[in-house]
Design a protein that fits this description.
This protein is an alpha/beta fold. The chain has seven helices and seven strands; from the N terminus they run βαβαααβαβαβββα. 34% of the residues are buried.
Length: 194
């Protein structure tokens, strides 16, 4: 499982296009749902572009939404559901299915709610729920999952990879979740400074 920074839209685009092997990215459900994407990108992207005249800016979500949804769907993503426990479990199970099919997972754990959006430079605070993939994967397969940090550096136009950290099923899960999240965050911050 590869864990990458977001850096607005740069991290996902750079990682999906440049990681030298196949990955299934985690992408917000709103970004692959034709009924939700226009409002989502209008609010999250176009409304922030104050340099575009408002009458034009107000129409950009509807104009580009279907194109963005098509592009996102072409990556064969695993949809990420927030605030819906059943759907979160569905996404984790889809991830485990992909791993069992020998696919790699690419996810972006930065929490945009802590920083009023995704950070432009550096690394934001992480959500930790993604570590549930490792626990559930181990329960289903008996195999230990390894996570790697990836930093997409916009200034140098490079991707950097950390050493991996492997899930230890013998540890208390809450502590293991913290251990993995902390390691990956620290590794990503280190990569961002290289």
């Amino acid at each position: 499982v590869f864990v990458c920074n977001h850096s607005k839209v740069y991290g996902p685009i750079a990682a999906i296009l440049n990681i030298p092997f196949y990955v299934k990215p985690w992408i917000l459900r709103e970004m692959v749902d034709n009924n939700r994407i226009s409002a989502h990108i209008q609010k999250g992207t176009f409304d922030r572009q104050k340099w575009i005249p408002k009458p034009i800016r107000d129409k950009l979500g509807k104009l580009f939404g279907p194109i963005v949804a098509w592009a996102m769907k072409s990556t064969e993503p695993i949809p990420v559901f927030r605030n819906d426990g059943r759907e979160v479990i569905k996404g984790i199970n889809m991830s485990i299915d992909a791993l069992e099919a020998h696919d790699n997972i690419l996810l972006f754990p930065e929490n945009p709610f802590k920083t009023n959006g995704y950070v432009i430079e550096g690394v934001g605070e992480f959500f930790s729920g993604f570590v549930n993939i490792a626990r559930n994967y181990y329960k289903r397969t008996g195999k230990k999952l390894t996570f790697y940090s990836v930093f997409a550096n916009k200034k140098t136009r490079t991707l950097s990879f950390s050493e991996g950290i492997t899930f230890n099923p013998d540890n208390n899960f809450k502590n293991e979740k913290e251990r993995i999240t902390s390691y990956l965050h620290t590794a990503m911050v280190t990569l961002s400074r290289e």
